[in-house]
């Protein structure tokens, strides 16, 4: 799963045992407060501020984030999504896989320029004539951070572990399902033998781990790799510290084979509140913030020293339908509405969603209208429905379709299901995602006009009802990789859970024979053009089923401080995202800004003026308070 | 609070002199109540802050009740939103627009309905529980009172907001959930107050007389104790409403309310999620914030005034 298709910021998507999001710590600011304690608070605040102000006088300026204490160049990134695991065998979320991209090197990478395969640990790779035996040459200049060399044996051990231990196959098992044997005949030679041809052999997004560290691990399904710091790795950064929902600290790997990163330290700092993260960026406490709202990006664009990156994203934002949850052993479970099993109903719901309005109003133009499954950024695979196939916004036709399907309106104007009760769908939404709630408001009105009611179930943790199939529709979204195999695989029957108690890789229990046939063919197709054609046919099939209504492809809207980061690579280079890349390009390439820019001194002058003004005001307030105190004391006597 | 301004116990001497002997006891009782109400109002009027609070409340109540006529339910509609996203205040939109282009002035008016409704119902629920627990604990004493008061203490030391958040999280997101979450977490203060008053009332000789004449538990509690703790309960309700409104706003602001309902706290939450704080879109944040503050203040002013009228011994400065 890994960077193939991570769950985005909000941990959307059901698959994977750790797929859901954990409860975000809420902003627990109390609005209520007895008036009496206010005075105390003010006094205490004045004292505290006076103390801190004393510490940050012009003689003793507060440390600047970009060049902290001992001249170390630190890059701080504001993140919000909780970490699911730091084990490469378990992690599926965007934040955790981004960290793993930085700490473990992969066999191959994607070029930042055009997403083509570039050497990683493997310097070159060749296939036998029958395309069933792949030989990788492993570079000899790569070292683990504890000094031991990286060898083909490490890679072979990683793959073999995933093939033999179900716990180790949790996140990336789909890559090795077709492997017959993996061997390392010499320290620089890795041989993978396949059962069937596999088109993704130059895009194996599996972090290679050091055998000498990981062979001591007992239970791979439980080990989270977050105890022994620094964690032995071979990427551009070494993980030196982690505290859940607080920070992730990474140190530059000076001996990285591609060259050392320019920053000395990279810190992912947690801000559970988007506005707080933006305020921290404005103050220079963090250098980079992603997932901005339209209002935030508009405000930040006007500020100096801040650059807003608004580029096509690699995510899709969809409404997934519960097609009747079931497991591989044929058992049905969950309680999805039976009317949704009717394709006409799904099409009617599809046609009653105005995707253009969603892009214009909810994303305010920071997105592209949804069509096929794969975002237009991956133009090789992007597909759009033809004129008569398209389920465009047409409420009248949707109403007609529902009438035909037998879901007619009753006297109260509500559509009635086969059981005689009015149709009312539960829509699973992420309480932490403003977009879900906003789109929910539109759905309520569009589908309400159609005669269908909805209940918006906004939860902090959508995983439980999702995995249990206890929903009718759900907001869904995945980040797509240059190689689309993974996001396609999550809709195959093979991804269904083994039994209702198990967790499958499936996104929303879709199992369609025709789709599966096309999936197997594309995976075995080595000709890029033919494979792209098959992938498009799959998307066409998925579109026709009406299970996945891709509403939009949201842009990556991010901002960074230009007085802290001089330059940073986007992916693709022309117009792309910085956070959550398919590689380590952005953080590895980030150039620190000049250590004494004029802006810095301007900032500190401002700080000094602010502090002086603040102290004067607070002193005045304190004096006033003291006076009042005395007067009340006099009154008392 | 040894008050006798409202319906007093039968053993208390009647306040108003009986004029002639022709009137029925019922009519006499009504006359007495009318008189005490008039006296209450006379005294209440002398509390200027209380009058101001009451005026503000009447204004807000009128605005909330007439909202369907003045702004209409359509103000919540996102599909028919009249303006562009995040427009500044203008002649057309007095308080600007939100991220959907909806008129914020209308939304603030409409939001008063939910905020006031939740505040009132939650306060009533909270005071009901508190009064019930307080009266029974004060009346029965013994092991029952011990157990009930330990439970009360437990609720008292638990941070109300944390408890309410926990409740609102496990229950489904709806208006009722919020009302229940606030109601069942904020009653212990009332219970303590009511119990103390019950103990004071029950130690009076007339209660003993009533018992001697055969008055049962129910009779003593409903006919003698309840009328005497009523003023306290009323004042407590008024004060509780303002804290309930604040709690509702807090919960909605934390995203625990029903996302499809418009309330003041919900508007603040929407503003925060849209990034209005860091973008400086003050017109989205300030009006609902001021509305919450004003209504909470108004209820507090009224509550204080009622309290000091009913219990002159408090000696609260006007």
What report would you give on this structure?
The complex is a heterodimer of chains A (637) and B (318). In chain A, helix 1 (35-55) packs across helix 17, helix 8 runs antiparallel to helix 10 (395-404) and helix 14 runs antiparallel to helix 15. In chain A, 31% of the residues lie in helices and 19% in strands. In chain A, a hairpin with a 6-residue loop joins strand 3 and strand 4 (117-119). With 637 residues, chain A is α+β, with helices and mostly antiparallel strands. Chain A has helices at 35-55, 94-103, 152-164, 173-176, 211-214, 274-283, 294-301, 343-351, 355-362, 395-404, 434-450, 463-467, 485-489, 513-523, 528-545, 585-589, 598-636; strands spanning 67-68, 72-79, 108-110, 117-119, 122-127, 133-138, 179-186, 189-194, 237-243, 247-252, 265-270, 288-290, 306-311, 315-321, 367-369, 424-430, 453-459, 473-479, 548-554, 556-561, 565-567, 591-592. Chain B has 318 residues and is mainly α. In chain B, helix 2 (48-70) packs across helix 12, helix 3 runs antiparallel to helix 9 (217-253) and helix 10 packs antiparallel against helix 12 (282-310). The longest helix of chain B is centred in the middle third of the chain and has 37 residues, at 104-140. In chain B, 44% of the residues are buried. The chains are: A alpha+beta (637), B mainly alpha (318). Chain A binds chain B through residues 23, 26-28, 30-32, 273-275, 278-279, 282, 292-296, 298-299, 357, 361, 364, 429, 431-432, 434, 437-438, 440-442, 444-446, 456-458, 460, and chain B through 77-79, 81, 85-86, 99-101, 161-162, 165, 169, 172-173, 243, 246-247, 249-250, 253-255, 259-260, 270, 272-281, 292. Chain A: It is found in: Cell envelope. Chain A: Residues 1-31 are annotated as: Disordered. Chain A: Residues 118-489 form the Solute-binding protein family domain.
